[in-house]
C-alpha cells in the first residue's frame, strides 16, 4: 500500500541517534537544547520548548496562556481533535468558528462573531501546511484581550507575509509525528516569544518544578530542593529523539522543496481531471505542504476513497470536524454548527505526499484517480 505520508530516514539520522545511545544522556541532556536551538532558527529566533507530541504541545501552550475553567477558546473544527480536546482538558469551553471554503483555514469573520468576555485564546490551524490569516486573527485577539495561538502541526518552515511561522502568534505549536515534514518519531514543540509564556511552558512540561532558589518559597534546604508552585506534567522529549530531530531539521529545506515540487506537479497533472477542486494558495504565504488535499465533488468522495485504497493507494481523509466526535456531542455540540467546514470535510481527500514519493508513484496516483473520475 502506498501511504499518504511517510518519514524519510537516512544513515545520518541513524548515526545521530546511535551517538546519543552511546553517550551519557538519554534524556534532559545536551541534545534537547541543541534541538530547541535548531528549531528556533526556523521560528525567526523565537525560543522553543520541546515536548513529547503535538498534542502535548497544545496542552502546554494552553497552560502557558493561562487557559482554565470558565475560559473560552475559539478554534477551527477542521483539525485533529487534539486542538480542541486539550483546551477542554484545561477546563475551557471551545467555540468552533467556520472555515474559509478554499483553504480550509479558520475564517476570522466567523471567529469574530464568537468572541465573548470569556475568550482567553484564539487558535488558528495551518491546515495542510498553509498558514492561517494571522494579521486578522491578531487584530481580533488583541481586541478581545486574548492570546493568539498557532497550531502549526502541518506548517513547520512556512511563512506568512514573509514572517516565519513561529513568529506570528503569541504561542505556536509544532508536531513531529512520522507523517509530518520533520519527525522525532513522536514529539512536538512550543514556540513562545513572551518570556513569561516561555517560563510557564518550560515548567509545565517538567512537572511544574521550580529549581532556582531565588524563585522558591522555602529555599535553603540544599542542592536537592525543588518545589512545585503550579501543577505540570512530564512532557519532556528525550535526547535520543531530539538527536533525530536535529538531523531532520538540517534537511528541512530539502524536505520542503521536494514537497513543494510534488505539489506543483500534482497541480499540473490534475488540472483537467473532472470533478476535482485542487488546493488553494494565498499569494502572501509560502506553505510548507504537509497534505495535498483535493476536493472530490458530486458526492463521490467515499467511492473514490474506497477505489483508490483497493488499488493500493493509501489516500486519507483529514479531518472529521472536531465537534462530530461523540465526546463533543455529549457536551452538547451538534452537527450543522459550521456548514463550510462540514462541506469541506464531505469532499476532502488527501493524496500521498512525502519527500521520498517518486514521480512514478505520483503518476500512478494521478492515473488511478483520473481513471476513476474520467
From TrEMBL:
Keyword Signal: no
Gene3D superfamilies named among the record's database cross-references: Aspartate Aminotransferase, domain 1 (3.90.1150.10), Type I PLP-dependent aspartate aminotransferase-like (Major domain) (3.40.640.10)
Short name of any one Pfam family annotated for the protein: DegT_DnrJ_EryC1
Keyword Lipoprotein set for record: no
Positions in coiled-coil regions: none
This protein's UniProt keywords: Aminotransferase, Pyridoxal phosphate, Transferase
A GO term, aspect molecular function: transaminase activity
InterPro entries: DegT/StrS_aminotransferase, PyrdxlP-dep_Trfase, PyrdxlP-dep_Trfase_major, PyrdxlP-dep_Trfase_small
Cofactor(s) of this protein: pyridoxal 5'-phosphate
Similarity comment text for this entry: Belongs to the DegT/DnrJ/EryC1 family.
Protein name: DegT/DnrJ/EryC1/StrS family aminotransferase
Organism: Nonomuraea spiralis
Source species taxonomy: Bacteria, Bacillati, Actinomycetota, Actinomycetes, Streptosporangiales
Amino acid at each position: 500500500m502506498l501511504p499518504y505520508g511517510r518519514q524519510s530516514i537516512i544513515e545520518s539520522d541513524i548515526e545521530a541517534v546511535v551517538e546519543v545511545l552511546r553517550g551519557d544522556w538519554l534524556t534532559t541532556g545536551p541534545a534537547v537544547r541543541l534541538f530547541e536551538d535548531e528549531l528556533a532558527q526556523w521560528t525567526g529566533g523565537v525560543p522553543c520548548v520541546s515536548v513529547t507530541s503535538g498534542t502535548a504541545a497544545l496542552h502546554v501552550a494552553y497552560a502557558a496562556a493561562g487557559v482554565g475553567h470558565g475560559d473560552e477558546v475559539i478554534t477551527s473544527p477542521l483539525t485533529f481533535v487534539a486542538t480542541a480536546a486539550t483546551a477542554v482538558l484545561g477546563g475551557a469551553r471551545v467555540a468552533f468558528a467556520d472555515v474559509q471554503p478554499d483553504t480550509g483555514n479558520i475564517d476570522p469573520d466567523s471567529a469574530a462573531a464568537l468572541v465573548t468576555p470569556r475568550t482567553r485564546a484564539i487558535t488558528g490551524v495551518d491546515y495542510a501546511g498553509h498558514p492561517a490569516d494571522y494579521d486578522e486573527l491578531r487584530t481580533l485577539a488583541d481586541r478581545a484581550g486574548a492570546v493568539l495561538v498557532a497550531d502549526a502541526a502541518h506548517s513547520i518552515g512556512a511563512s506568512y507575509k514573509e514572517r516565519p511561522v513561529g513568529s506570528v502568534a503569541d504561542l505556536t505549536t509544532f508536531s513531529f509525528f512520522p507523517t509530518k515534514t520533520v519527525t522525532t518519531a513522536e514529539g512536538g514543540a512550543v514556540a513562545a516569544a513572551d518570556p513569561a509564556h516561555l517560563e510557564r511552558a518550560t515548567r509545565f512540561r517538567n512537572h511544574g518544578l521550580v529549581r532556582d532558589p531565588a524563585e522558591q518559597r522555602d529555599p535553603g534546604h540544599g542542592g536537592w530542593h525543588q518545589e512545585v508552585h503550579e501543577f505540570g506534567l512530564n512532557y519532556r522529549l528525550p535526547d535520543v529523539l531530539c538527536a533525530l530531530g536535529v538531523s531532520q531539521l538540517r534537511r528541512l529545506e530539502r524536505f520542503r522543496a521536494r514537497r513543494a515540487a510534488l505539489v506543483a506537479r500534482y497541480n499540473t497533472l490534475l488540472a483537467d481531471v473532472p470533478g476535482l477542486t485542487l488546493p488553494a494558495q494565498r499569494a502572501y504565504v509560502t506553505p510548507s505542504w504537509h497534505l495535498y488535499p483535493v476536493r472530490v465533488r458530486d458526492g463521490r468522495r467515499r467511492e473514490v476513497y474506497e477505489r483508490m485504497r483497493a488499488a493500493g493507494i493509501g489516500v486519507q481523509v483529514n479531518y472529521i470536524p472536531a465537534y462530530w466526535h461523540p465526546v463533543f456531542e455529549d457536551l452538547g455540540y451538534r452537527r450543522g454548527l459550521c456548514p463550510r467546514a462540514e462541506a469541506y470535510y464531505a469532499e476532502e481527500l488527501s493524496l500521498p505526499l512525502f519527500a521520498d514519493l517518486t514521480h512514478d508513484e505520483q503518476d500512478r496516483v494521478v492515473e488511478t484517480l483520473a481513471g476513476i473520475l474520467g
